[in-house]
Amino acid sequence: MRRLSIALAAALLCGCAAYAPPQAWEKQYLARPEMQFDYDRLDAKNVQHVYVSKEGAGGGYGVGGGGCGCN
Amino acid sequence: MPRVRVSFRAMAAEHEIVVDHDDERGAREAIDAAIADVRRIEAKFSRYRDDSVTGAIARAAGGAPVAIDDETAALLAYAATCHALSEGAFDATSGVLRRAWDFRAQPPRLPDRSAIAALLPLVDWTAVERTPTTVRLPRPGMQLDFGGIGKEYAADRAAGLIAARGVRHALVNLGGDMRAIGGQADGTPWRIGIRHPRPGPDRPAAIAWVELADAALATSGDYERCFEIDGVRYSHILDARTGWPVRHWQSVSVLAPLAVVAGSCATIAMLLCERAPAFLAGQAVAWLGVDGAGVLRGTLAP
Amino acid sequence: MAATERVAGPGALVAAALALPGVALSPAAQAQSAPDAAFVQFKYLDYRDWQGGGRRMRVDSPGFYAVKPLSDSLVVEGSLVYDGMSGASPLYFNALSGASGEGVRDYRTAGDAKVTKYFERFAVGVGGAYSHERDYISRAGTVEVRAWTQDRNRTYAFAFSGAADRIHTESGAADRESKYVLDFLAGVTQVVNPTLIVQSNVTYSRGHGYFTDPYKLLDRRPDHRRVLAWLTRANQHFPDSGGTLKAAYRYLDDSFGADSHMLEAAWHQSLPQGWSVTPSLRYLSQKAAWFFYGPPVGSGLRPGQPYTADARLSAFGALTPGILVAKQLDDGWVVDLKVEYYQQKSSWKLGGEGSEGILPLSARWIQLGVGRSF
To answer: Which domain holds residue B236?
Structure first.
């Protein structure tokens, strides 16, 4: 039940923002590197590897990295 | 990725084209093709040249219809749309008012009311007789000019010619009217500074910065050609219905998908004065205006 | 006679302008969304952790990443990472005396490569990964498909990956064991408005084989594991300040029982001259695996039943404050330095009930990176 309310809260937060998908000429901010999700892949790889080796499990970011002996 | 930057002069102003492209020679060829088209448009539509199409149309005013090609007909149709959307304030026949307003005279002088009154009958877009292949100005002395449309049209065409050669990062800047293809090669957008309408020693050169990616930016300001008498500024942006300059915005900058739209919206916004925000909202563009007090307004204002 | 034009409505000028010859909207001519610039990057990660006041593990990890367009629609990318590990392997709980503290020195080399082909409205990627340690080899293959709407404001992603791992320790604890894992991903990315982009991914991992840690006494884990993770993240840009808020929440459901909630937030602040600074904070709260038993050693152990005393599968909360400083130089060069500090404590678990008797674990890592686009 708590999981459901957290998920709903996340969806609501998104709903608070104005829904106005931009036209091609309004995408100048989206072009910025910090607005992209996978801009620095090597950093994400390193950081997720550290967390997977120190915590129970990882996931959600992507698939395909293979395994390691660290967990 | 190599960057090629070419500056050139046309239409009595400085222009610049910047291209990021792997193939440097291809980039220069694309830029050359774009510059050639800009000069072609200048020659064809310049009001300062007798051999231009606008010159031929002006000389035939009061006489027979003049045959025009598809490009001229399309530009006239666009000018008609601008006239309709600006409640008649934007008028492609208003160029004759230049005979009364001399912005280079020293000392600056206001025109006689009678001079304006004599010219106003020649300012009448609704009287222009257009067919898809001809145009006729019914009264002798009338003339057409594409100010606010021509340079911006050239910028859009230049961008198209460059993009057609596979270039994905370019900025065409014709006298301050810009059209960007993509952003810069490093992934960041093109950053454009908007000129401060009242520059001074303790003021930044740019009053604001706008980021462009696949978009166009044009600015219309009361400082481009103007004079001041007794502290009142008279600019070259004349209301076609009165023959006198508008006085509300120091400048309006418009961000739109096309340079020709950005340019005409900026000019129309200057002409509509306090009705500009409603007009711009209806055109679904982004804009930044500097009002008479120097305050920033518009969707791009902080 | 002149016709009176009657046009109205948003975009009336755009419609009229498109009738002009040679005038077209921008990216109409270019349907490709494939990147057209090559990028090469080198990063060095310096990692250290401590538990119970004693210095424990150290990893030095240089890594390399490159992406290169092969044509207008074909892109290849790959990375190579080398981990040099030294120090003691993790203590399973606070039995400092007599517990494993012996030095470990191991090396891991991992590489992966992917080729992506771009079409007008979708892209297909195929990749492989290989990782080699003294006692562990992993091989994986991935297929991913991304498809987007005409206006590129929404992208759907689907990916599938299969990995085959082989574990063989000299001590004989793991004698030619294997582990097979299938991973699936389904995700959506939506541009909500010109300053907000949101992504939500669900990953499902199903593995069977050898999950036990061969270096821990009495460690024996189930031979299958299913992990479901749901990650939602958003980037919100604020043009006035030049700052961007980046936030993420992930819920993870693990058949081992180590379910977790993760929340992270960062603020990217653009500064003049190409500088930027990004402070960040991450919080994770994890439940203990159902077969985790805290000290004393062996309590709860029943013959034939899974058992672990590994702190990584205990119940805890972990906090990572961090900061990243970056500078974009001329000519496509970019340099960045990131420092993060990690603390894992049973008392920080959300709702209490952290595993008792586990010493807090601390870690810090520094990552220096240099990259260049061409």
So the answer is: 189-297
pLDDT in tens, B113-142: 898 999 999 999 999 999 999 999 999 999
Same-domain pairing of B104 and B198: no
> Looking at chain B, which residue has its C-alpha nearest residue A24?
B214
Q: Do C151 and A19 touch (CB under 8 A)?
A: no
Of the candidates C350, C340, C316, C342, which has an alpha carbon nearest to the alpha carbon of residue C93? C316
Q: How many CB pairs under 8 A join B and C?
A: 116
Q: How many cross-chain Cβ pairs, A to C, lie less than 8 Å apart?
A: 218
Domain assignments of chain C as residue spans, ordered by start: 3-373
Query: Are residues B231 and B132 both part of a single domain?
Result: no
Whether ipTM > 0.85 holds is: yes
Cα C13 from Cα A26, distance rounded (Å): 17
CA distance A29 to chain B (A): 7
| Residue B43 in domain | no
CB neighbours (10 Å) of residue C45?
24
pLDDT at res. C331: 82
Domain boundary residue, one of B120, B136, B152: B136
Alpha-carbon radius of gyration of chain B: 20
Q: Which of A7-16, B160-169, B245-254 has the lowest mean pLDDT?
A: A7-16
Q: Which two tokens stand for residue B6?
A: 């070419």
Domain residues of chain A, as ranges? 29-60
pTM for the whole structure? 0.86
CB-based burial of residue C352 (10 Å sphere; 0-12 exposed, 13-18 middle, 19+ buried)?
Answer: exposed
Q: Which residues of A touch B (CB under 8 A)?
A: 23-29, 31-33
* Mean pLDDT of all residues in B260-271: 95
Once rounded to an integer, what is the mean pLDDT over residues C116-144?
94
At the topology level, CATH places domain C3-373 in: Porin (2.40.160)
Write down the pLDDT at residue A66.
80
* Of A35, A41, A59, Cβ closest to residue C252: A59
**CA-based nearest distance B153→chain C, Å:** 8
Residue C338 in this model has a pLDDT that exceeds 80:
yes
User: Is the minimum CB–CB distance between B286 and chain A shorter than 8 Å?
Assistant: yes
CATH number for the domain harbouring residue B79: 1.10.3980.10
